[in-house]
Amino acid sequence: MTQRTLNTEETARPAPAGSVAGGARHGTPRAHRTLRPHTLLVAAVAWLLAAVFLFPYAEMVITALRPVHELRDATYVPGEFEWANFVDVWHESNLGDNLRVTLLVAAGSTVLVLLVAVPAAYYTARMKFRGRKLFLLLVLITQMFQPTSLLVGLYREFYQLDMLNSVWTLILCNAAFNLAFAIWILTAYFASIPEALEEAAMIDGLGRGGALLRITLPLAMPGVVTAMIFTFIAAWNEFVMGLTLSTIPESQPLTVGINSFIGNYTVQWNYLFAGSVIAIVPVVVLFALIERKVVSGLTAGSVK
Question: What is the pLDDT of residue 104?
């Protein structure tokens, strides 16, 4: 009798808060949260803005696939897609050489900028030397100069050094014009990392360089990635210096090579847009892979 009473009391005891009800265990659907009109309006506006910004890229892809006889048709979608445009633009022009030059220039400029900017930014953030503010001011002033204002001097200098039509020339120029931004962003990022972490590492036996490589640099990796991606994209999209310092078609970057489809009397729109699609794909893929680190690097230090 006593055992039966205890079982009855346990069955009648209410379930604790937050526990799953018996009906829910057997597949009873949960109540869905209703969307507010404000949320729906914001989502609709966001999708509309995304469509507006993506429409030119969609038009570029569609035009790249248009046959020659449909280039002047006032239709958004062609009657047939000419996939051979991508093959023809690759074989009938120097686009392969231009892509190779652009990859070398963008990668070389990025590596050179990081090799110089990381130690410079670290020393500026950690050492309170005389003239530190003047150094940062000079770095900022160099960022204010436009490459086009220095083209005549740069052309004359590299002409005397016999370095025209060289990949190294474009690497040096792109690295020089992107170095200031990398130093500034990395200086702010290194300054936000507590110096006590490095002091603890040096007490354990590491030197200043070891503390930088093993402690500070991994923590500053979002800032390094941010400087890397911005330098890479700036070097990838550069046009004016490539047009001025490279006169041989095989040594020109991709942006200049695509411009060759624009003639004095005719424009090869299908090849022009096909080359543009090929040019943006590597940057889009690279940015999509490291987008989170770029955002975290740009917002570092905004919330304490």
Answer: 94
